[in-house]
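User: Please predict structures.

Assistant: First:
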Amino acid sequence: MKINRFCDKLKDIMTANGISQSQLARMIGYKPSAVNKYVNGKLQPDLDTLLHISYVLKSSPDELLGWEELNYIDETGKSELDKYFDKND
């Protein structure tokens, strides 16, 4: 299971909203090179940046992090997060 889904979700949400990397950079007051690193999975945002990105994209931090899918409960009564942490305890 891939826990680090931020870059994929960020790309999806930006595409769905027709927002380029340069536009997002202007919206959050960052250099385009920083946004490029987020989009390409080379850098993870800190909490303040994550909240700012989710605000300007009219999304939630959970959606950007891919937690919505990870919290889905399957037929065994466990979520993907439950399974991940059970396996790594």
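Second:
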Amino acid sequence: MPRITNVEELFFPVETQPIFTRPAGSHLGMEIPISNRMAILNGRTNEVLGVVSKDYRLVTNREACDYARKCAQAVFEDTTEDEWEIFAVDAPPSATYCHVDLRHRTGKLDFGYVMVGTREDVPDNYGPYIRVTNSYNAQRALRFTIGCYRKVCANGMTAPGDIISFSFAHTRDKIQSDITFVVDHDRVRKMQQEFKAAFDGLRRYEFARKHGRKLVQTILAIRRPRNAIEEESNFNAFQSDWFRLEGYIDSLYGKYADRLGDNAYSALQAATELASHPLENLCLRKDKNTLQRLAGEWMVDFQRQCAEQAFDLSEYLGRSTHTHETLATSGRVLA
């Protein structure tokens, strides 16, 4: 089903309601309140978004976005809160949780990386973003992360590691009326150089065109599901979607490789485009947040591995599991 991408669709009123139960065989009006639980309701549709404990601290999506602006100002101290704007939104149709990205209105925080394509004098411009995650079903903690996006297309990835240390569950003893953000400013100052160094290492690692699609799949931990493996039975929807996904990834990588060369930087660009704009596909179950986090973690991990003298790409691609995938969830939550 289509995902929510308009932030106004997330700014609906929410409210808490008590929960009652009725003993078996009892008459109408004999409801017993469940004292330690309550329901979170969408005030626009009256749909139940989640059942939470009585100590749950409800943070609305609008409040979460306000907190994100405060977070952005804490991370980039020479900016103001009103200079940060919402530019990307991702949430399931139920709106039980969401990821909202904020970027700076100007280019003062941008950094350029010189491309290796036909116009080396033209930099690939990147800008930072702050992502806030919020939920109404207690499945995801209120969380703030930092990443970078390619400005020409808004393809992004989450920076690996903890730069912003605030991340708490929605309980009254954890989230107060105001939040103090603890930021590793040394990491923030080094972030641009770390990204540039990683980009350069990936650009220098070249390989044959035939490995491109497989490397993109490796970056995003995309594997062929069992029910998409060809058997003697009739061709099914999973098999059809798998071939469609492989063809799309192959063309996506080719688009970047034609301009930037057959190298790991082109594979990263293809992976971040797919991560930022996931296809509706039975064989692609991870959401945008997970895919972008995988891309950021892979960038650091692969840069280190490919620099080793004994590194073999064919062996790397042949592995059935990948270290960076363990840090991300295994699939899309369809709630």
